[in-house]
Design brief:
about 230 residues; alpha/beta; OB fold (Dihydrolipoamide Acetyltransferase, E2P); 2 domains; two-stranded parallel sheet; 6 helices; about 40% helix
Length: about 230
């Protein structure tokens, strides 16, 4: 009887051998999930995780094909491959469309970094571009600094990124733009990246703003905000 049970167990193992799920397949699913926030404009850099998910899925499918008796997870990897490709292609297409259509007519796109001095600069002074666009209508993106206050705002300090906004201590002078919303417009404070269109101005003399240690060089009188 015992011999029959052992033979039956051996036969079951031969018919249904244990196969481990490919770690690459699991990793591909994880990276696919974490790539999803990349569809939101603020977090578009996370779309790069979809590329990692695609590579992991291909590695998993290759491993299952080469070692079918040792690994499983081909279906998982295939699902992850399709999903991550959809996220990557859809996300890139969407963000490209937004980039090409987001600037209102009559405004010039100005990347915030072109208004900033390098981190190793000896002096913090307005950049050459800042002088060039003084008095011109511009389109710029940034974040509301928490020290500007909470709730609904008509005036606030705009900074270039979340690092400067929340984790960088006191921003430098060229990391700040003093924003005034025109026409009774308001905006709710928060960590959402804002898109602003308005008239850029250089202060004739550096201005001091409450709760900020450094002077402010730049101002923006905003007609449109999203």
């Amino acid at each position: 009887m015992s011999a029959e049970l052992q033979m039956s167990a051996a036969a079951d193992e031969a018919d249904f051998p244990y196969r481990a799920i490919s770690r690459a397949a699991i990793a591909s699913v994880v990276f696919t999930v974490f790539a999803l926030p990349g569809l939101v404009p603020t977090f578009e850099p996370m779309l790069f995780l979809a590329v990692i998910a695609i590579v992991a899925a291909l590695v998993a499918m290759r491993a299952v094909k080469r070692y079918p008796d040792e690994y499983s997870g081909r279906a998982i990897a295939l699902f992850s491959l399709i999903a991550s490709l959809a996220i990557l292609v859809g996300g890139v297409s969407m963000h490209t469309y937004i980039y090409l259509t987001e600037v209102p007519d009559g405004y010039e796109r100005v990347p915030f970094f072109e208004l900033q001095q390098p981190s190793d600069a000896k002096i913090d002074a307005p950049t050459e571009l800042a002088y060039d666009i003084d008095g011109k209508p511009v389109f710029i993106k940034g974040y509301i600094h928490p020290s500007s206050g909470g709730g609904v705002l008509r005036q606030f300090i705009l900074v270039p990124d979340l690092g400067t906004c929340c984790f960088g201590g006191q921003p430098k002078s060229t990391d700040m733009i003093e924003v005034t919303l025109l026409g009774g417009k308001t905006v709710k404070a928060g960590l959402t990246r804002r898109k602003l269109a308005g008239k850029f101005q250089l202060n004739s003399a550096p201005q001091v703003v409450t709760d900020f240690d450094n002077n402010v060089f730049y101002r923006l009188r905003v007609d449109q905000i999203k």
